Amino acid sequence: QKEVEQNSGPLSVPEGAIASLNCTYSDRVSQSFFWYRQYSGKSPELIMSIYSNGDKEDGRFTAQLNKASQYVSLLIRDSQPSDSATYLCAVKGDDGYALNFGKGTSLLVTP
Amino acid sequence: DTGVSQDPRHKITKRGQNVTFRCDPISEHNRLYWYRQTLGQGPEFLTYFQNEAQLEKSRLLSDRFSAERPKGSFSTLEIQRTQHEDSAVYLCAISRCIYNEQFFGPGTRLTVL
């Protein structure tokens, strides 16, 4: 079974700090990695995608991928209270079309 | 706006009834997915369409579930003889051919009494 693991949290960080969210996956042939943000009562919103080892930056967000360690992370710089949400890690293997999601990490940014 | 609408947004039904949900991509996207999400869990994949062809189905999709995508545009998901455990948010997602990024619609929340 292909598993995607995330710490459920809640992860609490003060406003302005860096929030670090982590995800590990079990399927070594995974090729595509995504981070979604989900506010309570809303559907998941794609915020980052990453396909190759290393870092990818987009505004305050940085995704980091290490395929050898089967590890992907999301850094949020200058965290804002509006960043408080559940962050879902999703992984796609090479053998299908489905995204496998973790259970999500709840992030709380306190003013 | 992700370019996907879903209808209805909420559905309450009694156990044993049939329900049907609809997903409408606003623009042309040849890849369409259905997922199900319960409280505290990430979305779980149900099925995938490329144009009108249903190319992948999850083992989660029991024979009470059926999905269609006639003409490769909108899609419907039907649940027959609903059970309490079918209560969830049913999410539709779309992606373009060259990218694998999936964009979700607002979802349909199903409550089975």
Keywords:
heterodimer; A: 111 residues; mainly beta; six-stranded mixed sheet; five-stranded antiparallel sheet; 53% strand; globular; B: 113 residues; seven-stranded mixed sheet; four-stranded antiparallel sheet; 11 strands; 51% strand
Biggest beta sheet summary of chain B: 7 strands, mixed
Helix content of chain A: under 10%
Beta-strand percent range of chain B: over 45%
The outline of chain B comes out as globular
Indicate the low-confidence ranges of chain A by residue numbers: none
Order of helices and strands of chain A: EEEEEEEEEEE
The proportion of strand residues of chain A reads: over 45%
The tally of beta strands of chain A, per DSSP, is 11
Share of residues in helices of chain B: under 10%
Mean pLDDT over the residues of chain B = 92
Characterize the quaternary organization of these chains.
heterodimer
Arithmetic mean pLDDT of chain A = 94
Largest sheet of chain A: 6 strands, mixed
Query: Structural class, from secondary structure content of chain B?
Result: mainly beta
Radius of gyration of chain A: 13 Å
Specify the structural class of chain A: mainly beta
Summed up, the helix count of chain B is 0
Number of helices of chain A: 0
What is the number of strand segments of chain B?
Answer: 11
Unreliable stretches covering 5 or more consecutive residues of chain B: none
Distance between the termini of chain A: 40 Å
Description:
The complex is a heterodimer of chains A (about 110) and B (about 110). By secondary structure, chain A is an all-beta fold. Chain A has strands at about 5, 10-15, 20-25, 30-40, 45-50, 55-60, 60-65, 70-75, 85-90, 100, 105-110. In chain A, a hairpin with a 2-residue loop joins β6 and β7 (about 60-65). Chain A is globular. The termini of chain A are far apart. Chain B is mainly beta. Chain B has strands spanning about 5, 10-15, 20-25, 30-35, 45-50, 55, 65-70, 75-80, 90-95, 105, 110. In chain B, the strands form 2 sheets. In chain B, strands 2, 4, 5, 6, 9, 10 and 11 form a 7-stranded mixed beta sheet that branches. A 4-stranded antiparallel beta sheet of chain B has the order 1-3-8-7, with no helix packed on it. In chain B, β5 (about 45-50) and β6 form a beta hairpin. The model of chain B has no long low-confidence stretch (mean pLDDT about 90). The interface of A and B includes residues 34, 44, 98 and 99 of A.
